[in-house]
Amino acid sequence: MSLVPMKQILDEAMKGGYGVGAFNVNNMEQIQAIMEAARRTASPVIIQASRGALKYSNLIYLKHLMLAAVEENPDVPVAMHLDHGNGLEVIKQAIGLGFTSVMIDGSLMEDGKTPSAYEYNVDITKKVVDYAHRFGVTVEGELGTLGGIEDGVGSGQIHLTDPTQAAAFIKATGVDALAIAIGTSHGAYKFKAAPALAIHLVEDIHRRCPSIPLVMHGSSSVPRDLVDTINRYGGNMPNAMGVPMESIQAAIRKGVRKVNVDTDSRLAVTGAVRKVLVETPEKFDPRDYLKPAREAMMTVVEGKMKDFGQAGHAGDYKPLSLENMKKIYEH
User: Fold this and answer.
1) Closest by alpha carbon to 37, among 305, 308, 312?
2) pLDDT of residue 311
3) Fewer beta carbons under 10 A from the terminal one: N or C of the chain?
4) Residue 108, SS3?
């Protein structure tokens, strides 16, 4: 099975009423962890890379790691997604590398930090849609902004998505999926108190735009056990807090289909590495700590796949190619 367009994965999730995790990667061990979790749970999966990940991996390495993952797991539908693209040039670069899906974050200016005007967002998103659809590539847009900053992306300000504006934005741009702001934040320090997400916005936007999959960014739960492991072995992460799984599942029931997860994977990897280095300080072979790090991340991702409802759906449909999707867009 080759890489598939994210649109197909999300459209099928809409039919089944479940969410699909989109997990960020930077290296081989993370990709292996996600794919092993997908294989064990028979889950379709979205693997995504930020601009920072592309820079870290010198572009071409990440591409071939993804191709290896698909070759090793022929029964798992996989979309390769660019997270938080900030302009048409990086979109072109990702599509040239073989990404089957891209996100253009027009809610921020090209610096990835300054909130943009609605008109700018519509303009840049429409340009990306027109370009990407020529190749059969899925496009995710964003309306509203999240709190927090992760991987150099974010304004640190929360601006909730307006449902009326969301409907107009989808019509004006032709996006395949829309990331909405309902009160979540990037990073491990999302809230100072128990979060109260605007789940009603998900329901309202889904009611107005029932054919468009909604996307939830900043969706790591920051599990207490992962944070405790880091702190127990020399870390310093006081007051880390994430989105309760119950809130994520409520959003999925109301129309969210793509759920972005990055921080929880990082926490799992970091805790496992710290544990090995503290408990066995004589170790110096990277495999001695990267293997348990990979296993820890796999366990976290496997749990998410079950919690989001995507487990067991890998074989529900015949995968489409980008060429197939290109013909669909042409009509």
Assistant:
1) 305
2) 98
3) C
4) strand
Calpha distance 69→10 (Å, rounded): 20
Predicted confidence (pLDDT) per residue in 196-210, tens digit: 789 999 999 999 999
- Catalytically annotated residue among 11, 75, 83, 162: 83
Q: Which residue has the tokens 């072979």?
A: 285
Task: Name the token pair of 150.
Answer: 């992760």
For the CA atoms of the chain, what is the radius of gyration?
19
The distance of Cα 196 from the centroid of its chain, to the nearest Å, equals 22
How far apart, in whole angstroms, are the C-alpha atoms of residue 132 and residue 140? 11
> What is the C-alpha to C-alpha distance for residues 175 and 177, in angstroms, rounded to an integer?
6
Q: CA-CA distance, 87 to 229, in Å (whole number)?
A: 38
Strand, coil or helix: 45 = strand
List domains and CATH numbers for the chain.
6-181+192-221+234-262+299-325 (3.20.20.70)
| Phi, psi angles (nearest 5°) of residue 284 | -140, -5
Distance CA 245, CA 229 (A): 20
If we measure between CA atoms, which residue out of 129, 124, 165 comes closest to residue 144? 165
Give the global pTM: 0.94
